[in-house]
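Aim 2 progress. For signal-recognition-particle GTPase, the working sequence is reproduced below.
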Amino acid sequence: MAFEGLADRLQNTIQKIKGKGKVTEQDVKEMTREVRLALLEADVNFKVVKDFIKKVKERAVGQEVMESLTPGQQVIKVVKEELTSLMGEDESKIAVADKPPTVIMMVGLQGAGKTTTTGKLANLLRKKYNRNPLLVAADVYRPAAVDQLETLGKQLDIPVHQEGTQANPVDIANRAMEKAKEEHLDYVIVDTAGRLHVDEDLMNELSQIKENVQPDETFLVVDSMTGQDAVNVAESFNDQLDISGVILTKLDGDTRGGAALSIKAVTEKPIKFAGMGEKLDELEVFHPERMASRILG
Ligand code: GDP
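Predicted structure tokens for this construct:
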């Protein structure tokens, strides 16, 4: 399970301070030292860890006494609040265009889970938000990607706009917009090409598509199992494409959690959804507070 090591270590650490009737500066120092190590071991970006510890220290040492909690519990409350805010304040909403269709552009590296997540997101939009999406196969370089999306559409009974692998992705996206308008579909989700690494050609093509379809959301799909790499990828995509949010996949695996805990701080873009398995209903709205509770027990 994701975060297992981190959760174990943090829970151990806070257990020590929990029952304390008096928390000294030394106690806070020891606790934060252990929290720091636990976060670094979970592959959280070192700068993110540094800022996090600084905030916890400041708040934990100088905080006001609350009658309902023991001093130990108050320190834990601070850690939990800061962990939550590290991942984003509230659950973030998905955009709705003033004039339909709302356009969502999916970007990310090959293998991150982009195509699968495109299907999952359409499924969620229909089930949770009662929307009618159109899927768009704009990844023309990987022939299997078009077929994969087509298959997902059939499985979900959601329409797919595809023009094979010969057409230009920008034209495909533009025609899909027309189709959505004609057929009164209120969301268009564009699955774009990925590469094994971030490169200039990819970014140029994605920028072009973005300029043309003017998406209301640009979601970067990243594999949480890739740790610090996921954070670097997010930084590059955000610099070039000004993404609006991140979808973290494979949180059902045994990721140490570094990506989930660093991406928001590094890119200042929220994690909006989390992939929790390969099945099409295994995409969840990302709740920072629930995630923090899961980690801290
Ligand atoms: P793309 O190249 O980015 O379009 O990636 P795909 O959508 O083809 O996904 C790559 C692999 O990751 C597939 O085997 C998916 O089933 C798998 N995958 C995607 N999301 C998740 C997830 O949240 N959890 C798990 N366990 N596997 C996932």
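The longest helix spans residues 25-41. This observation will guide construct design in the next reporting period.
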